[in-house]
Amino acid sequence: FADVAENALDDLPIIWASTPAREIGYTLAERILQRIAHDEHHVRSQTIAARLVTQK
């Protein structure tokens, strides 16, 4: 109906969470080595912060 490009009709940004795969891998490897060494003094759960990525 209007002579407007489709991408000009919506102005909503796309946002998603990106998890740091390398940091997760390093943390997992460290935890596996600790378990092999029977070192149970460390935390059983760990939170790794995600990074928000915005694209318009």
UniProtKB/TrEMBL annotation:
InterPro entries: Peripla_BP/Lac1_sug-bd_dom. Residues 3-54 form the Periplasmic binding protein/LacI sugar binding domain. It holds the Pfam family Peripla_BP_1. This is Mal regulon transcriptional regulator MalI. The lineage of its organism: Bacteria, Pseudomonadati, Pseudomonadota, Gammaproteobacteria, Enterobacterales.
